[in-house]
Amino acid sequence: MREIRTEAEFEQAINSGKLVVVKFFTDWCPDCHRIDPFMPDVEQAYSDRLEMVSVNRDVLPDLSQRLDVFGIPSFIAFKDGKELVRFVSKLGKSREEIEHFLDRAVQVSQGLPQA
Fold first, then answer.
1. Three-class SS state of 86
2. Which residues, including other chains, have CB under 8 Å from residue 41's CB and lie 6 or more apart?
3. Which spans in the chain are helix H?
């Protein structure tokens, strides 16, 4: 998963025209590390429907604050620069919960009018 390191990179990613899911994390978050082992498989399984990128909340704190991301790990889906759905909470997340969120993001994205 490509890590976004600047707000300009973030804006470029979410305005790419694709469905983009952003994973917010920090290096010190135990729940973030707990999902690390299965995230590459999840990303691969959804690679034909969406792009996943990551943002370290400690590297881009202003962006995280602007998006009201306080609990980590958190996931927000964007299409054409607009937020579609989010999975944000202070609780740990299972693979099944993340996949359910990604399915929902794809469903919402497919329901949007085509440009």
1. strand
2. none
3. 7-14, 30-35, 39-45, 61-66, 95-110
Return d(Cα 92, Cα 97) in angstroms, integer. Answer: 10
Catalytic residue among 19, 32, 69, 98: 32
Res. 115 pLDDT band, cuts 50 70 90: low
Q: pLDDT tens digits, residue range 24-50?
A: 999 999 999 999 999 999 999 999 999
Answer yes or no: 29 catalytic.
yes
Catalytic residue chosen out of the listed positions 19, 29, 67, 102: 29
Is 93 in contact with 31 (CB distance < 8 Å)?
Answer: yes
* Digit-coded pLDDT (tens) for 64-91: 999 998 889 999 999 999 999 999 877 7
Strands 2-4 and 51-56: parallel
**Residue 68 and residue 90 in contact, taking contact as beta carbons nearer than 8 Å:** no
* Count of beta carbons in the 10 Å neighbourhood of residue 85: 17
Residue 91, classed as helix, strand or coil, is coil
